[in-house]
Specification:
22 helices; 526 residues; 0% strand; single chain
């Protein structure tokens, strides 16, 4: 008697899931669309979730995740990226799971919920189908048997197949009609479309019928005493004294050389000094954070000791200064060479490390929980990643390199046009600004124009099926007609490639006089 409510719930969820499959098929298979259209698909997925899950609509906490998912869908429309899609999927999955949770709790528990959801999702439709068939059969006859179903369906199916075969043999029009209804033979195209449908259905069904994890590993509290060999008030105090002295020596050297107070030793440039130490120093700061988390747990004897607390505050302050020096090293290296997306990401990562160290210090002072520390660091990371969805780091790097290039009187190295070419349309507007400058050498201007034209054509072609709001804005600002360039193959830097060497033609075969041959043959015969 419970089969009908369950059947009704399944039917109401099949409708939005079918909508998602049809929308995805139209976008990605029939029209071969991508780019910003992925953002429109994401908005359709949100609409399907709201239509098929009333519990999500009635949960206030879920609306916060829905708003975040909508924001990332807009980021996909602005400039589609794997980062924006990943954040969208996390947000929409949290919205789907939120009604089944008592409270938000912490990031560690949500990591487990999302991990379990991703593991369960591929098998969810099969599990639900099996459950539905069992409940439906139990509601009708009390027992569900596959053999009974086969016995009932065998006669009508076999009889219908025989009659259809006879009608097809007798009537060519009937045969043509049946051929139009039958699916084509299995082909890579059909298999790919079926795989796309399956993937789209699994995505929609995992949101409409989520499976919350029943058991979660508790969050590491990080409070109270933790008995570790060699860890005591005396050993921690002595360690912090030694660590602070070593850090003072390192930071004084950075102040002296990195900040320009003392000239660099012979044989070492500022770029070498900056590049060598940036990442190992960040690793040192991370190890310092781990030391504090393990040996100075809130409520422990070491954390309650006044001398240790003051030494820890001094050490964390020196670690933050060390991170600032690492950032300055990276900036000096960028000024000596060039800016790349990876180096921007490294600077942002260093900022997050400094924030994490400050959060550890605040946790120790205020005796906050480990869940608080996890959540505040995840919030900072999420904010940074959200900003990165709307800021094109490639365009930032290209603009900086163009402004500081040696060709325009800057202090940087020669402009790497191959790197700008690899950035794609992110470098289009900076290259247009560079091309308009009046102080460029003609040969360099032609190379810039060649790279700019290549990127412009590629963006125009990409916008036909992979339209994005940012790409359209760049085309509108570019608004340039094609410029005639010298014909010939060009490299990634816009320079003409030398023509391939022409192989020397074989010497022509000289014709032989028949009379001379006969005379020579007669002489040999004599």
């Amino acid at each position: 008697m419970h089969s009908f409510p369950l059947a009704g719930r399944f039917r109401w969820k099949l409708a939005p899931a079918s909508f998602v499959v049809g929308m995805g098929d139209w976008f990605f298979y029939q029209r071969h669309l991508y780019g910003g259209f992925i953002g429109l698909f994401a908005l359709g997925l949100l609409a399907a979730l709201l239509a098929g899950r009333p519990a999500v609509r009635h949960d206030r906490r879920a609306w916060a995740a829905l708003v975040a998912a909508g924001l990332f869908a807009l980021a996909l429309i602005h400039d589609a990226s794997l980062l924006a899609w990943g954040l969208f999927w996390i947000a929409v999955s949290m919205a789907a799971l939120m009604p089944a949770t008592a409270r938000f709790d912490d990031g560690w528990r949500w990591f487990q919920r999302l991990a379990w959801q991703s593991i369960w999702s591929p098998f969810g439709p099969l599990i639900d189908l099996r459950r539905f068939l069992k409940v439906r059969a139990a509601g009708r006859s009390g027992r569900w048997s596959l053999n009974a179903a086969v016995a009932v369906l065998a006669l009508p199916l076999i009889g219908s197949a025989v009659i259809l075969a006879l009608f097809s043999a007798a009537n060519p029009l009937f045969e043509l009609f049946l051929s139009s209804l039958l699916p084509p033979l299995l082909s890579p195209e059909l298999i790919g479309r079926a795989f796309l449908w399956s993937l789209l259905f699994l995505m929609a069904w995992s949101l409409l019928r989520p499976c919350p994890a029943r058991r979660l590993l508790p969050t590491f509290d990080g409070r109270g005493e933790l008995r570790l060999p060699g860890v005591s008030v005396a050993s921690v105090t002595l360690s912090l004294l030694v660590f602070n002295l070593i850090f003072v020596l390192q930071n004084l050297m950075d102040i002296a050389w990195l900040w320009g107070l003392v000239p660099m030793p012979k044989g070492m440039s500022m770029a070498d000094y900056a590049h060598r130490g940036a990442y190992p120093l960040i690793a040192t700061a991370l190890l310092a954070a781990l030391f504090v988390l393990v040996t100075l747990r809130p409520g422990s004897l070491t954390a309650r000791t006044g001398t240790i607390r003051r030494l820890v505050m001094l050490w964390i302050g020196q670690n933050i200064f060390l991170v600032a020096s690492s950032m300055l090293r990276t900036v000096d290296y960028i000024q000596a060479y060039s800016l790349t997306r990876l180096r921007i990401a490294a600077l942002v990562w260093m900022l997050l490390v400094a924030f994490g160290l400050a959060a550890i210090c605040w946790r120790l002072l205020r005796e906050r929980s480990a869940a608080w520390l996890i959540n505040v660091n995840l919030a900072a990371t999420g904010l940074v990643l959200t900003i990165a969805c709307f800021v094109d780091l490639g365009a930032v790097a290209a603009q900086w390199n163009v402004r500081h290039a040696r060709e325009v009187g800057g202090q940087g190295v020669a402009l790497d046009l191959c790197y700008l070419n690899a950035l794609g349309d992110s470098a289009l507007l900076p290259l247009i600004d560079l091309e308009r400058r009046a102080d460029l050498r003609p040969e360099f201007r032609e190379r810039v124009r060649a790279v700019r034209s290549r990127l412009h054509r590629a963006l125009q072609q990409d916008q036909q099926h992979g339209w994005t709001l940012l790409g359209q804005k760049r085309l509108d600002l570019a608004g340039r007609k094609p410029v005639a360039l010298a014909s010939g193959a060009r490299g990634c830097d816009g320079a003409l490639r030398p023509p391939p060497p022409v192989s020397a033609a074989p010497p022509p075969i000289k014709s032989v006089d028949p009379k001379a041959v006969r005379a020579l043959t007669g002489e040999i015969g004599k």
